[in-house]
Amino acid sequence: MRILVPSSIIDVTGEIQACLSLAKQQGFDIDNIELGVSSTQLVELVFLRSVTTISSDIISTDLYDSNHQLRYQEGTFLDSNIKRDNVVHLSIEDQGASFDVWRHPSNGEVRALLSKRPITEAQRIKHFAWVITLLALDFPIEDSLTLARAQLNVSRETWACEYSLFPVPVLNNPKLGIVSNWSLEASVTSDNALAFDLLNKESLGLYPVVDDIAWIERLLALGVTTIQLRIKNSQQADLEHQIVQAIELGKQYQAQVFINDYWQLAIEHGAFGVHLGQEDINEANLDELAQANVRLGLSTHGYYELLRITQIPPSYIALGHIFPTTTKQMPSLPQGLVRLKLYQQLIDTIPYGDDIGFPTVAIGGIDLTNANQVWQCGVSSLAVVRAVTLSDDPKSVVDAFAKVMSPVQRTESIAEVTP
User: Fold this and answer.
1) From 215's CA, which of 54, 127, 232, 407 has a CA 20 to 30 Å away?
2) Neighbouring C-alpha atoms within 13 Å toward the C-beta of 107
3) What is the CATH number of the domain that holds 352?
4) What distance in Å separates the CA atoms of residue 202 and residue 335, rounded to the nearest whole number?
5) How many CA atoms, within 13 angstroms, populate the side-chain half-sphere of residue 177?
């Protein structure tokens, strides 16, 4: 792909080159990215089958129509109506805080990041270059804006991985037009303890995700200690029966059984845990889940989402999808191993009760051919679907994963690459 920069701001090319060089050090493939000059007043990201355009008041006072308009010079934010879907209002000052505000491209939802400090005039080129670079690397706009802000707090040679360096996604701010349905009264407590019970990272192990009680029983009998019942059809005739049986089997085997989505039934029948996707959080009542002593796992697909949900905070964080998968329709591109490792490095710096670092579950396209690579990224658990359910010998697969995920295996692999 090509990054084309208007000749009027050609100096930004050097900053983009520095960003790309640092991305290469992390493991991103930048060999197919070329830098060139745009014949317009727009930055153009020319992909194989599409073109993304970016305009900014850094380039011209006349903001041309583009996929993303980055506005740095608006000062105080007075109008809560974000009128244009493609406009990103940067470093808006309000009551001593600095906000970056935009609308989500797919659903029009207003989103915002809260930072301790505004973007200074001297920092604008660096921020702009990072947004361009991250969009070129296929990060979505919310992740590009989140990481670009963090990069302002580190040197040119450093990839931001420390929690304190990152902005905070705004959960509720009616003035900005952000009203979340997330119920946080119980989940954010005065002593910063978790409303949702802690999980021991070592207790997770292999995490099969299955759609039938027969698999629950079969895998628990093989020694699996964490499992999820995910039934996609909410109209399935025996849905409640399956959930009840899964919960009872979990108690029988003293296992950690999570119910996907059906949080009311999970509460009613005393489930150990519930797993929710990003799109399901607004539909659930987090206070009721916390008061029912239900452990909560949440899916994330990038920087913005994981920083948003750590404010709840959940019992564990699922990261994915790592590789292409056909088990469900995904809202994002595969994350890959480089991003997974970077997300894990960030999560390892986030407070989790009295400890540091949330338990994490990698999910999406994981099987025995790639399991060791995923495991070496530092995650706490591997979630698998077809790797077990399509096997002719599930026991041998479970045993093979146990070998891959042993502490000795991770230690030896780290030692091999340590100078």
Assistant:
1) 407
2) 6
3) 3.20.20.70
4) 24
5) 15
The predicted pLDDT at position 415 comes to 46
pTM for this model (two decimals) = 0.94
Distance CA 317, CA 205 (A): 14
Residue 257 and residue 166 share a domain? no
- Does residue 194 belong to any structural domain of this protein? no
Tens digit of each residue's pLDDT (9 = 90 or more) over 327-377: 666 666 899 999 999 999 999 999 999 999 999 999 999 999 999 999 999
Which among 122, 144, 141 is positioned nearest to 72, based on CA atoms?
Answer: 122
Shared-domain flag, residues 244 and 100 = no
Domain of 125 in residue numbering reads as 2-176
Q: Do 206 and 337 fall into the same domain?
A: yes
Ranges assigned E (strand) in 132-270: 168-169, 206-210, 226-229, 256-260
The verdict on residue 183 lying in a domain is no
What's the total number of domains in the chain? Answer: 2
pLDDT tens-digit series, residues 177-209: 888 777 555 444 444 445 899 999 999 999 999
Q: Would you report the helix, strand and coil content of the chain in percent, each value rounded to 5?
A: 35, 20, 45
CA 27 to chain CA centroid, nearest Å: 19
